[in-house]
Amino acid sequence: MPEITTKPRTKTQPKTERPKLYKVILVNDDFTPREFVVTVLKGEFKLSEDQARRVMITAHQRGVCVVAVFTRDVAETKAARATDAGKAKGYPLMFTTEPEE
């Protein structure tokens, strides 16, 4: 009788990495009204009134402020929507994204 050898199958599980995170950054300008910035921060980023004011003041004093951290797609979408809200009203409001280190 011929000898049958069997090889056990090894299961390989792909290693999944956590997605890289991106910061959404509010860039200060001297033309967009503060109340409008607060409204956008509350609406798009779901910040409280107090949090939105602190982010707006920090951006005003330092030139930029990190609003929140998300995965790349979410960060880019939120930044674009917030920037578009400013453009729709004729303001130069700008949000950018960059990778978190």
UniProtKB/TrEMBL annotation:
Gene3D superfamilies, sorted: 3.30.1390.10
GO biological process: protein catabolic process; proteolysis
InterPro entries noted in UniProt: ClpS, ClpS_core, Ribosomal_bL12_C/ClpS-like
Origin: domain of life: Bacteria
Adaptor protein ClpS core domain segment(s): 18-96
Leader sequence residues: none
Protein function: Involved in the modulation of the specificity of the ClpAP-mediated ATP-dependent protein degradation.
Subunit structure: Binds to the N-terminal domain of the chaperone ClpA.
Similarity comment text for this entry: Belongs to the ClpS family.
Protein name (record): ATP-dependent Clp protease adapter protein ClpS
Species of origin: Mesorhizobium metallidurans STM 2683
Gene that this polypeptide is encoded by: clpS
